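Thread title: Can someone regenerate the structure for this chain?

I was given the following input by a collaborator and told the matching structure tokens would be attached. They weren't. Posting the sequence so someone can regenerate them.
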Amino acid sequence: MKSTDLVVGRWGCRFQGLYFPCSIGKGGLSAKKQEGDGATPLGNHRIVGMLYRPDRLAKPTSWAVPIGPADLWSDDVSDEQYNQMTRAPYSFSHERLSRADPLYDLVLLTDWNWPYAVKGRGSAIFIHTWRKPRHPTEGCVAFRQDHLLWIAKQLQTTSRLIIQP
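Best answer:
Regenerated them for you:
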């Protein structure tokens, strides 16, 4: 049986014996991730959820959760809901999950600094669609949309994102 873990490094991603090009954070890979450094944190991270836009994609797995215009992600360290999904209206700094572009049409959530966020350690590390091939992210891991969709359909609730130097 092939592993359902995503293994990522500067070279790309290995998943189920296949290689996929991917993007990492503009700050490179880091063992000491901090808020705003743009780095992708090294280590083993559980994949703890999957979000998708039902107006753009069919439900990729039975455990995927639909998102809509009111769904947000708090990125404000002064907020009690920091690094958590929340809903509009919302007065703290946040990122809209339902975007005009396709970046978050499908999002895999990791357990980086979640569910009990430590201020300054950095908010969510998502796996999402890239802007363009290998274009750096703010710290997330990003794939070509068709690759991400194929990967998402193969994942299990025990899958991990393993970031290697």
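The CA atoms of residues 41 and 72 lie 22 Å apart.
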